Amino acid sequence: MPELPEVETVRAGLELLLAGARVRHARALRKDLRTAIPDLAGLAGVGITAVRRRAKYLLLDTTGPSILNHLGMTGKWREGAEVRAHDHVELHLLDGRRIVFNDARRFGLFELCRADGGHDALDGLGPEPLGDAFDGRVLRAAARRHRRSALKAMIMDQRVVVGVGNIYASEACFRAGIRPGLAAGRVGGARLDRLVTEIRGVLAEAIAKGGSTIGDYRQVNGLSGLFQNQFSVYGREGEACRACGSRIRQSVIGGRSSFWCPRCQR
DNA sequence: CCTAAGTCCTGAGTGC
DNA sequence: TGCACTCAGGACTTAG
Is any atom of strand B within 7 angstroms of residue A70's beta carbon? Predict the structure, then answer.
């Protein structure tokens, strides 16, 4: 899926489309996402007040229930009257526009929040990586608990820190100079501090570039992201490291394809 | 046949 | 032994 930078880019685009708009009615064209889409009749007539992000989830606040949405691997939002394959939810606005959530692989989520604004899916999530609550102490504590698991798997654990997925985990480990497969418990505190800095840095840079387009991710306005052109290691197996010239290596760590430089990362 | 941006569940293993 | 947790692997799904 879209990781934090892609979700944040979609959030900004959706906010432009939806903030201040009023829903005439909302309808599910097919309900079979990761969980069944609930009855959306309660969205008729609501105003959309804000579009927020928590972790990789989007939250559409309304004058009625908030909408909780996850893009899964292939979830997309767009504006347009044309019905396409894998359109799941359409929001018909009072001004006549049709805003659609489409998800080919159906790993996404589209639900309504409780009356108190919460949702079970948001429970137990770790701190936002770009917020003050994420610091070296967070990773040091996590590394003690997850001491035998691979460092890369640890930073992708959404209970440890949110928003880091398979692409940015490899990129952050490269920037920090740490091998992604190293057992977390064997990485010293100073190196974990450095990893915090690099996670924040790579995510912030990627947001500034509109995210990374691999396959079918698009911004709400249909444009591709640009950060894929700046990858140091992801998807570059066999190519030369831009820092030292060594061949980038690939292996499966925690079930996910992972990339690193054998010389720059120890 | 292979691979893919995510998450959830299972069952085996670990440690108090 | 019991319990709570960690950790690896597979499942879900469609497209290229």
Answer: yes
